[in-house]
Write the structure tokens for this entry.
Amino acid sequence: MLICFIVSPIFLQTAEAIAANQEATFPPLPKANKRADYYPLWRHVKKIARIPGGGSWEWRCTLCNGLYKGSYPRVRAHFLHETGKGVDSCMKTSDPGERRKFEDEQQEADRVKRRHDELNNASRQASSMEPRIVLEARKRKATQSQI
């Protein structure tokens, strides 16, 4: 019986580095696309032309083929049937089951955005606290050495 293995170049590099007692280098991970993570409903429209002054676009719904102008809140209102946003609701998402898919997609994006914001705030707080902690440690060390 013949067993064949397919070995990736990264694995070989890692194995060679370990054998040579060196640190392995890996290719950088692709960066997350925040636009796609935070604004998933843009995937369901075709952007036609950018409107000067702000984040507005002329866009066409890929489901109902309607032509609209506006930014992401209007795209969201179109698919999720939110009223008072200056855009018609998509007739193809009038079915509650179909609309639920879009709502779930948007809720997941909101959850990801909240998590990213929490991590960014925690990181900012930690970096602002670091100089104080170092300064307090130096003061403690100085007072201990005087004793």
